[in-house]
Predict the structure.
Amino acid sequence: MATILITGANRGIGLALTEAFAGRGDHVIATVRKPEHLEGLAAVMASFPDRVEVHRLEVTEAASIAALADRLAGVPVDVLINNAGIFGPERQSSLDMDFDGWLEVLKVNTLAPLAVAQALLPNLRLGEHPKILTVSSGMGSMAFHKSDSVAYRSSKAAVNKAMQCLATDLKGEGIAVAVCHPGWVKTDMGGAHADISPEMSATGLTRIVDRMSLSHAPEFLSWDGAAIPW
């Protein structure tokens, strides 16, 4: 049994990941912005009362991240999954940008995953074969030439690079790091016309977690295991 910490666990891919890992016997530390509004997470907790615990975490607040680290002091974490993310403002083209909205996207999608990873390094160092997986997007690949959703794309390209650097810095400590594209998923962000369900995406991402190792890190993988160009 592994201990998996998942950010943004109350809906969408995060919720599906929580259910997938708990369902196979792992212990999940599920973090949410508002524990008083658990949405679908309450049902998962009812199904696996001994395998899911919930903690408050606002990933853009340094005090909230520090408080989580304090609450989990001395607790081994085997896998950190940076899942929390936002799409961004309506105006985010290179010719018409909501710059305040862009900054918020960068805070959530780029800065927060690294901040959370840094804060939880003591826990990961106590884990068995520790791993950090950040949910990114194929839209952040520099190999794909398309101009739309600039705030979102740039935030994912930036977090990819940050995680690539983190992988290099943590390799000597035995901590594997990777980023993944979860697919076009039927969530609030992906919409009803997306390709796959959150459950299908989560199944693929659990397989990615299982195959992660220092010999492969850092990797940029699709939910189905295919490699994506950085």
The chain has one domain: 3-222. The mean pLDDT is 95.
